[in-house]
Amino acid sequence: MAKTKYAGVYVDKNGQFYYEVYLGKDRITGKKIRKKGRKNQQGKKFTSAQQAHKELIRVKNESLSTNGYADYHMTYGRFMDAVYIPYYETDVEESTFYVRKKTLENMRDRFGHLELREISIADVQQFRTWLLSAKGAGYSQAYASLVFGMFRKSLDMAVEMQFLEANISKRVKAIPKGKAVVPYWTKKDFEKVIAEICIDDFYEHLCFIMLWVYFMTGIRVSEGTALWWDDIDFKNKRLRVHHTLFIRSKNDWTRKNYTKTADGKRIISLDDDTIQILKDWKKRQNEMGIHDFIFSYDGMPMIKSTISRIVERYSTFANVPRIQAKGLRHSHASYLINEFNVSVLILSKRMGHSSPDITLKHYSHMWSGIDETIADVMSGNIQIQTAPKTRINFNGNHAVKK
Question: What is the pTM (predicted TM-score) of this model?
Answer without folding.
Answer: 0.68
